[in-house]
Specification:
Number of strands: 8
Radius of gyration: 22 Å
Largest sheet: 5 strands, parallel
Strand content: 5-15%
Shape: globular
Order of helices and strands: HEHEHEHEHEHHHHHHHEHHEEHHHHHHH
Number of helices: 21
Length: 423
Amino acid sequence: MGGLSVNVQTTEHQGVGTISRPRVLDLLRDNAPRVVSMVAPAGYGKSTALRAWPLDGRSVHYVQPDAVRDDGTGLLFRVRRALDAAAPYVLVVDGIAAPAPRLLTALFLHIHSAPEGSILLVSSRRPIDWAAALDLATSDVRHVGPAELAFTPDEAREVLVTAGVDIDDAWADLLFERTAGWPIAYYLCALLLRDADQPSRVVDDVVKETGELLPGLVRRLVTSAPAGLGRFLSRTSVLISLSGPVCDWLLETTGSNAKLAALARHNSLVVPAGGDEETYRYQRLFGELLRADLNDREPGVSSYLHMRAGEWFSRRGDDVAARWHRQAAHSAARTSLVLPNDQSTRRSAGAPDLSLAEMQVLAFLPSHLSFEDIGMRVGRSGHAIQRLAIGIYRKLGVISRRDAVERGLVLGLIAREALAFPI
């Protein structure tokens, strides 16, 4: 999304365009540093840039840690396999929140054992002192941040041209100023403008928007999508990994595999997951915003969908995914005050008045997920989750996450099955 390429299309019948960003590619081609650390908020095209590593004869090992289940064991296996080959390679670790011990062990093994000419490319939303963590000289780490990843005015205009959007330069300049070159925001604007009868009115609405920009853009995109597509995007957003069978099960329909393949071909909002052409995922921030929008608008629907997803994974023996989907269902049900079986829920006497957002966060506190990982599930930043958690502690009269869980159980605010998670 918005990194090295932008495939501008919302339906199968529109043209596809590609934006080349050699300026960003050059940042990755520099072989002087042993580590390239890309740190920027979501939506700056980090994953797109890392996936576009230019083929130069070195093998590329791409890993995207799974917040639900990956403790670094898989990465450690890949590093050991790469070391066995005894040839220079590229290790790409995309999207680290808080490095787990085994993940750090794998990276340390790579740094201090990889053949000369190997390189580590790593991305994160938060700064991590890799020089200290991996016992490196500071000069061995190249830092790439939002300033380098943001669109330039020329790149932003190219996005509009490739999308077939024809607006005056003055409107384009206003749009660029409002988005501050944020790639995902500009990309979503291009998708909205592509099919707008009056593009200037869309630009005017975006420029005058005083609230958070991205949630509004995502809601506009979903509501303006062709019949059925908006519903598909919104309701499958509860899934972290998308496939035809699980989407068919979730929506009680058929043909999801063809729809996912078409979406992946024609825009950058849906991308193949782990190199598997039949498994996909939403661009991370787009998926988070879709989930947050669904939770806010239809928490009862969100609860039902999570319950169905939990049943799907349970039948296939994936207990980890099944448990967190059931917990997400409980969270959504509590915020809508309706359980999946349509029975009303009642707070115990003495239960504090928690906001919808606090109820969503409270339901995840018994899990092993970090604040950053919880944020990914409910469509908020790690910092926002931390602030909400502190508010929960204050309202419950406790000082720790464990105490909040115990108090929540006593008050009936947390499902008993949540204790299946290690706290």
